[in-house]
Amino acid sequence: MTTQTNLLDVKNLKKYYPIKKGFIKKVVGHVRAVDDVSFFIKEGETLGLVGESGCGKTTTARCILRAQKPTGGQILYRTGAGPVVDLAQLPDADIRPLRREMQMVFQDPFASLNPRMNLLDLIGEPLLVNGVRSRKERTERVAELLQLVGLRPEYMQRFPHAFSGGQRQRVVIARALALNPRLVVADEPVSALDVSVQAQVLNLLLELQQRLKLTYLFVAHDLSVVKHITDRVAVMYVGKIAEIAPTQELFYQPKHPYTAALLSAVPVADPRRRTLQMPLQGDVPSPANPPSGCYFHPRCAHAIDRCRTEPPALTEIEPGRFVSCHRARELDLIGVEDISVSPVPTHPIGG
Amino acid sequence: MSNPTPLLSVRNLKTYFDLDEGQVKAVDGVSFDVQPGQVVGIVGESGCGKSVTIKSVLRIIQPPGRLVEGEILFNPDNGGGQGPIDLAKFDPNSKQMRAIRGKDIALIPQEPMAAFSPVHTIGNQIMEAILLHQPVTKKEARQITIERLREVGVPSPQDRIDAYSWELSGGLRQRAMIAMALACNPKLLIADEPTTAIDVTTQAQILNLLRNLQQQHNTAIIFITHDLGVIAQIADYVVVMYLGRVMETGPVDDIFHAPQHPYTRALLESIPTIQSAPREPLPTIAGSIPHPFNRPPGCPFFPRCPDFIPDTCNAQTPTLQPINQRQSASCFLYHDEAEEN
Questions:
Q1: Domain total for chain A?
Q2: Are A345 and B257 in contact (CB under 8 A)?
Q3: Do A271 and B207 touch (CB under 8 A)?
Q4: Which of A214, A218, A226, B262 has the fewest CB atoms within 10 Å, measured from its CB?
Q5: Looking at the structure, do residues A201 and A260 belong to the same domain, yes or no?
Q6: How distant is the alpha carbon of residue A248 from its chain centre?
Q7: Closest-CA residue to B328 (of B341, B340, B315, B319)
Q8: Within a domain: A86
Q9: β-sheet bridge partners, residue B101
Q10: Distance CA B338, CA B341 (A)
């Protein structure tokens, strides 16, 4: 599935928001929403970006799409034409032709579709903006896209209110695919959907990736969904990367205490495994006033003196496994139980 | 149903909303029991009527909604004294109902962020509930409030009692909300999606707290959620709802390990779990939840059901009936009787 080339290489990305006070708007501090984040995405793979609210995962995604201008760092993107460009430094005029290669799927399909535009206009707008002027051509392409995402082309004249949440999210996906993007940034694409509809959209995203050779950056807080759809996962905590690892390894052998805590906090849908006995104490610190040393040390059961003073750097402790923890090599943390060996018994009808 | 004196027994509850566009049968014949000290999880997707059900129990349905029929038998004395009282017979604003609300039955609302008043301290809001229902002085009420806040794990409660809700983090606000709900030692606590708006690590803390408090005080809890993982972790007994009707009820272990209703089975198969095999297509439930204005005739689930029986499921409405010693389901796979109408 994965090739060796990196489509995206994010290096030391920073996004600070100033805190202003008083009449002259003096800058008194910064909210370090994204603070020295580095990761890469290989072509054709799915990288999951997970973390709790306020950890900077959405800001990171928005910086990559240059919906926000980063404060510092590099976002090296290998363009479809070949050369590598730094999205963080590129002037706005040079970004525009690249925008068609990078598209976004938003969280809430009830907010991201204009209620006064029908599907033809909604999905056709990116085509129009990018020079497909003939209405006939647009209609044909929209019909093709609707079929691709599993909607009937006859629906083209209808408006968003006629569709359910799952169908609307399909429309949002069709719109994102209109210009044949290479990178799709999906920011919580299923968290606004009902459980019975989530599976349909996840399956669609997986199928489209295989057919169209897409690369996904998948931002989510639901670890079960992330486990299902990603190849590798990056865990963020208060603006920093805690751990990056291939999905299976991250879930079964986490190396960062925060990853392990996050995994143990997920309620398992099995009453025979009541797992929430030892929850993590305390709250997520504010990125405007983070603790000293490792940001996780006040809540960490394994913290030592060094953690309180010296911030850990993201280091590769095993090939492909990046952890920012002083004790990553010595700790033996518990991940998700592998129950593939003891499947849940199924019961016949009639009981 | 085995225990002769359930704390709460909802029988054939119907709550309809009369709108200009038509009538929405948000809750259409719901029945379930809550035993003393039991955690009952009501699970269902959006629009299944789970929130309307508990609002009906508390009698806080706003017009155009109205309670059409049904019984809400509440038995706070546990058999002794006066016996069960039917909350459905009271006027929503009556003295009796107001005496029960907040005292015997307390609510943890869906959005704790919005439920606190931003212009009163949390202490004053919790004390208000205590002063309303208990014969204590203001000073005593303040002491009880501090004690309650300590119990739910608010650090330095003697200072936090004078904090405003917006000064607290999401987790602390939710803890304060629980302290308010527990202020008068309710017999029944209703938690309406209490952890939906908060992060997983905080959610784990809150669920753990609720379970510990439930065991200490032997409070019965009705826990409403759409998250099957949360249900599995906290509930003793599960009620599965779909489009205003109860699809299946049973002990939590049976619901998760031997689901009988096709909807329960499909729902459990379709969720990606943290343990499921990655990157394989998930089994899905075809279609989506029908709009409340055009509910299908017969069984509400039949258009999406893999076990659909033609001319039966789309013609008659199944009733909730026992299918074994522990579980009940409303499905024609298990019985033939239909509802008359």
A1: 2
A2: yes
A3: no
A4: A214
A5: no
A6: 17
A7: B319
A8: yes
A9: B105
A10: 9
State how far residue B99 is from chain A, nearest Cα, in angstroms.
35
> Residues with Cβ < 8 Å from B11, sequence gap 6 or more?
B31, B70, B71, B72, B73
For residue A211, the enclosing domain spans 6-230
Q: Following DSSP, what letter does each residue of A49-76 receive, concatenated?
A: EE--TTSSHHHHHHHHTTSS--SEEEEE
Answer yes or no: do A264 and A186 share one domain. no
Which of A185, A210, A230 terminates a domain? The answer is A230
Measured CA to CA in angstroms, residue A88 lies from A7, A105, A234, A271 at distances of 15, 21, 20, 48
**Nearest CA distance, B159 vs chain A (angstrom):** 18
Amino acid at A322: F
CB neighbours of residue A178 within 10 Å: 24
Check if the interface score ipTM surpasses 0.90: no
DSSP notation for A296-349: TGGG-TT--HHHHHSPPP-EEEETTEEE--TTTTT---------TTSPPPP--T
Taking contacts as CB-CB distances below 8 angstroms, the residues of chain A near B235 are 271
- Residues of B in Cβ contact (< 8 Å) with A233: none
CA proximity to A196, closest of B121, B95, B200, B228:
B228
Give the predicted TM-score (pTM) of the model.
Answer: 0.83
pLDDT above 60 for A351: no
* pLDDT tens digits for range A231-259: 999 999 999 999 999 998 999 999 999 99
Question: Which of B201, B242, B271, B332 to substitute to test the interface with A, most A CBs within 10 Å?
Answer: B201
Q: What is the CA radius of gyration of chain A?
A: 22
Q: Does B9 touch chain A (CB under 8 A)?
A: no
Handedness of CA B246, B194, A240, A84 (dihedral sign): positive
A262 contacts B200? CB cut-off 8 A: yes
- Arithmetic mean of pLDDT, A218-230: 88
- Minimal Cα–Cα distance from B11 to chain A, Å? 26
